[in-house]
Write a structure and sequence with these properties.
Layout (H helix, E strand, L loop, with lengths): L3 E2 L12 H11 L3 E3 L6 E3 L4 H7 L1 H5 L2 H10 L3 H6 L2 E6 L14 E14 L2 E16 L2 E12 L8
Parallel strand pairs: 1-5, 3-7
Antiparallel strand pairs: 2-3, 4-5, 5-6, 6-7
Length: 157
C-alpha cells in the first residue's frame, strides 16, 4: 500500500473554504492519469471540481475530515496512480444513467497530512475511496469519499 504524503497544508482550519479548493482543482489538474495496479486510464472531467467540493458527502463533512478532503485536492493525481482494490458497483441512480452508463469503479487510496505538535512535525494517516464513473468515453473521477483517519500508522511501501 502506497501512502501519498501531503507536505504542506494549503487549506488550513476545520472549515476550509471549498470555493478556494474548487478554484485550485480547476487550475491545477491535467486530463488523465494511469492507475499503476490495473493500467486503467482515469480522466478528470470538467465536473470533477464541482462534485469534489459540493457533493452531498462533502457537505456533511466537518472538522478534520473536511480539512483532510480539502488538502487531498493537492494529490489527486498521485491518489489515482496509487489506487488499489478496484471493484465494480452498479449504477442505481437515474440521474447518473448517462454519465455512469456502465456503473462505477471504486478504488482505495491512502494519504497523510502533516501535523505539528510541540514543534515537531508528524503525520496523520487517512484512507479514502475514489469513485470513478464508467461511460462510453472511458473512466472519469467523480469524487473522493469515505475518508477515514487511520488509528495507527499503516505499513508504508
Amino acid at each position: 500500500m502506497a501512502i501519498v504524503k501531503i507536505e504542506k497544508i494549503l487549506f488550513p482550519g476545520k472549515k476550509p473554504n471549498m470555493e478556494d479548493v474548487k478554484n485550485y482543482l480547476n487550475d491545477t489538474l491535467n486530463s488523465e492519469y494511469i492507475v499503476k495496479e490495473t493500467d486503467d486510464i482515469i480522466k478528470i472531467g470538467s465536473k470533477f471540481a464541482s462534485e469534489f467540493c459540493g457533493s452531498d458527502y462533502t457537505k456533511k463533512l466537518q472538522g478534520a475530515l473536511l480539512k483532510a478532503k480539502a488538502n487531498a485536492s493537492q494529490i489527486v493525481p498521485e491518489m489515482i496512480e496509487n489506487a488499489t482494490n478496484r471493484r465494480w458497483v452498479e449504477n442505481k441512480e437515474s440521474k447518473h444513467n448517462k454519465n455512469a452508463k456502465f456503473g462505477w469503479y471504486r478504488y482505495d487510496s491512502h494519504f497523510s497530512l502533516p501535523v505539528i505538535f510541540d514543534g515537531k512535525k508528524s503525520f496523520n494517516f487517512y484512507r479514502a475511496t475514489l469513485v470513478v464513473r464508467i461511460n462510453d468515453n472511458g473512466l472519469y473521477l467523480h469524487d473522493v469519499v469515505n475518508i477515514k483517519k487511520e488509528d495507527s500508522k499503516p505499513f508504508e511501501s
